[in-house]
Amino acid sequence: MDNYIVSARKYRPDSFDMVVGQDSITQTLRNSIKINQLAQAYLFCGPRGVGKTTCARIFAKTINCSNLNENYEACNECESCVAFNKLRSLNIHELDAASNNSVEDIRNLIDQVRIPPQLGSFSVYIIDEVHMLSSAAFNAFLKTLEEPPKHVIFILATTEKHKIIPTILSRCQIFDFNRISVEDIRSRLEYVASQEGINADQDALHIIAQKADGAMRDALSIFDQIVSFSGKNITYDNTIHNLNVLDYDTYFKITQAFISGDYKNALLIFDDVLKRGFEAGYFISGLASHFRDLLICKDPGTVNLLEVGQKIKMEYLENSKICSVSFLFKAIDIANKTDLNYKLSQNKRLLIEIALLNICDVENKTLSNLSNTIINNIKTEVPEKSENIKIQQDETKIPEETKLTNTTQEKLSESIKPEFNNPTEKLNSESKSFVKNISIKDLAKDTDVTTAGKSEEPKSDYNNLGLDDFDREKLSYVWTKYAETLRGNPRLYNFLTSHVPQEESKTKYSITVDSQAIKNKLDLFLTDTLKYMRQNLNNKEFELEYIVDENNEKKKFKTDEEKLQDMIQINPEIKKFKDQLNLDFE
Ligand SMILES: [Zn+2]
């Protein structure tokens, strides 16, 4: 068997140029060599695996090289460089303070420090995990650090800068190493893969880079692990399987369920995640990040913050179209709060399930602001039962004979029939790809148009129109066409496609709505609605009126939940109060 060298060692950078993701640090170090201004003590801070020790070694080699090249990099040929590269240079001393943290260890080091180097000009002492030194050891070290012999350079490295006492900090030149970006890690992995003759999927390398959390060393270890698992061909599937990473697809699917209010599917997807052996806490924090990623895709200005491969980026962009910004804000908030409460929770599974139900509720609550009835808070009722009641209500609203022939309406009717189906679900998924954000400007524009039209009814516009007869079929067709023009306003669109004008007299039609508030909103659009209907029916006498369902208005005060909703409408603070105290009906 060949001598196997792990990639983290084999591809350890041996010049400043090859260090990944720490450009400003390597540049500064190189400059200090160029202008010959070396400090006697350096402190390298930063997370593990980001190149602190690597940079310290390159620095030690470079300042001892007798034949620096024009870029102030070590030549790798002189006697000192060769010794360094073969790991037998006497100019470099590494002490791991995690295991050698006693006063005795430091005294040994101090004794050594006095001996000048045989070859080259500097002896470099790298003290790793320097924060682990005992306070007695720190004190013993302090004096040497204050006045080291000319030939000595200390490089202290730590992952925990805040544990270093100020007297040490003030004596060092400090370098803060950053986590390496996913893109930098990915491109380095791509290089290593090509060197090793490995065919690696970009998305797979992205997953590895993400999993490494900014540490190049970890990335290379994971890379080796995947290679030993899947050989010369690294695919996205075998990577997520091997790393036990939850695939993006799961998150995309559950997001679809949230948007369409399909809480059953959301719970099933979560159950499947648990069955696949993932920890619930891992899932919920991943979900929060997923919403964050969808959110940054909503704006071209932030889309570059997305750290995924090209293929998955396209999926994110596509999926972000079905989510409104307000939904994502609320969903991130719910997921994040759940993540924070996760450790404290006695019933972790239920905690997350409640969060999923609440997220399902976000879009539907928004919807219910308009139609005000369709979906209620799942927490306070038995879901199946309440769904049944609502479906019955809806069916009474759309009598058999008025059903539309248009495909959208057919799909709606189909979706109403199956017993537990959510009536808004199909419509939502239909309009998904058209859902966009309505800016305040758009709304203002709409309102302007309507109010302008209202104050001066353009009767003259209709003079050219005829008085054509139309049947239900035609009316339904034109009505649905009109609804289509409002696809950009999903709430309105959903409402219009699920409510068909009912005949009062030959040209007079009405739609019954559940509350005065809905009527007011719809009336804002009435001028436009009438204009469109009259023109497309070629009937200048067509009239439409929204009628508030009196029974429904009275019925409003029947249940406690409805009373509460009413109170919340008057004073939104009540909702916060209720949530904070965790109040609920029995
Ligand atoms: Zn050299």
List its traits.
single chain; 586 residues; alpha/beta; Rossmann fold; Helicase, Ruva Protein, domain 3; 3 domains; 5-stranded parallel sheet; 3-stranded mixed sheet; 28 helices; 55% helix; elongated; binds zinc ion
Describe this entry's structure for a reader.
- The protein is of the alpha/beta class and 586 residues long.
- It has 3 domains: 7-176, P-loop containing nucleotide triphosphate hydrolases (Rossmann fold); 182-243, Helicase, Ruva Protein, domain 3 (Orthogonal Bundle), CATH 1.10.8; 372-555, no CATH class.
- The chain has 28 helices and 10 strands.
- The strands form 3 sheets. A 5-stranded parallel β-sheet has the order 2-3-4-1-5, covered by helices on one side.
- Mean pLDDT is 80; it is low at 366-458.
- Zinc ion binds next to helix 4.
Structure summarized in a few sentences:
With 586 residues, the protein is an alpha/beta fold. It has helices at 7-10, 23-34, 52-64, 79-85, 103-113, 135-146, 166-169, 182-195, 202-211, 216-230, 236-243, 248-259, 263-275, 280-296, 310-320, 325-342, 348-371, 383-397, 407-416, 423-431, 440-455, 472-484, 490-498, 516-524, 526-537, 550-555, 560-570, 573-581; strands at 41-45, 92-96, 123-128, 152-158, 173-176, 199-200, 233-234, 502-503, 508-513, 543-548. Helix 14 runs antiparallel to helix 16 (325-342), helix 20 (423-431) packs across helix 23 and helix 22 crosses helix 25.
Task: Give me the secondary-structure topology.
Elements: H1 7-10, H2 23-34, E1 41-45, H3 52-64, H4 79-85, E2 92-96, H5 103-113, E3 123-128, H6 135-146, E4 152-158, H7 166-169, E5 173-176, H8 182-195, E6 199-200, H9 202-211, H10 216-230, E7 233-234, H11 236-243, H12 248-259, H13 263-275, H14 280-296, H15 310-320, H16 325-342, H17 348-371, H18 383-397, H19 407-416, H20 423-431, H21 440-455, H22 472-484, H23 490-498, E8 502-503, E9 508-513, H24 516-524, H25 526-537, E10 543-548, H26 550-555, H27 560-570, H28 573-581
Parallel strand pairs: 1-4, 1-5, 2-3, 3-4, 6-7, 9-10
Antiparallel strand pairs: 8-9
Helix pairs in contact: 2-3, 5-6, 8-9, 9-10, 9-11, 10-11, 12-13, 13-17, 14-16, 16-17, 17-23, 19-20, 20-23, 22-23, 22-25
